[in-house]
Amino acid sequence: MARHFGVTETAVRKRVKNLEVIGVIKKYTIDVDPKKIGFDVDTLIGIDTMPEKYIHVMEKLRPMKEVMRLCSASGDHMLMIECWFQNSRDFTKFIKMLEKMDGVTKVCPAIINEKMKC
Questions:
Q1: CA-based Rg of the chain, rounded to a whole angstrom?
Q2: Which residues are within 8 A (CB) of 38 and not within 5 positions of it... i.e. 6 or more apart?
Q3: Which residues are 82's β-sheet partners?
Q4: Closest by alpha carbon to 75, among 103, 99, 44?
Q5: Which residues fall within 8 angstroms of residue 30, CB to CB, at 6 or more apart?
Q6: d(Cα 47, Cα 106) in Å, to the nearest integer?
């Protein structure tokens, strides 16, 4: 980066540290290809809940190993989750469990065919 911007490495390190301190950079992460580690089904699932059960449903979803991302959302669904499954049978079983979860009113699953930009 220093070479690209024509500054010293020290200047880059200081700027990055400052961005971390003020909260612009919140964390560092990696982008994993689920298929390369045995998860053949990558999904986005929209979930709607009864308003009074919203927090309860979020708390139930948060620790689930299948749930890679859990987001509060506006628009078509109250919650959006990204989940990884080893096969379609596991995916179907998970969807059925969600549909029976206390407080859930609607489940809208979609299988991700290809990620165009991450």
A1: 19
A2: 86
A3: 44, 69
A4: 44
A5: none
A6: 6
**Beta bridge partners of residue 32, listed in sequence order:** none
Give the tens place of pLDDT for each residue, 13-51.
999 999 999 999 999 999 899 999 999 999 999 999 999
CATH (residue range 34-111): 3.30.70.920
Structure tokens at 106: 């609607």
- What strand order describes the sheet that includes 67-72? 67-72, 79-85, 41-49, 104-111
What the block records as the tokens of 118 is: 């991450």
Secondary structure of the chain in HEC code, one letter for each residue: CHHHHCCCHHHHHHHHHHHHHCCCCCCCCCCCCHHHHCCCEEEEEEEEECHHHHHHHHHHHCCCCCEEEEEECCCCCCEEEEEEECCHHHHHHHHHHHHHCCCEEEEEEEECCCCCCC
First to last CA, the chain: 21
Spans of all domains in the chain: 1-30, 34-111
pTM of the entire structure?
0.82
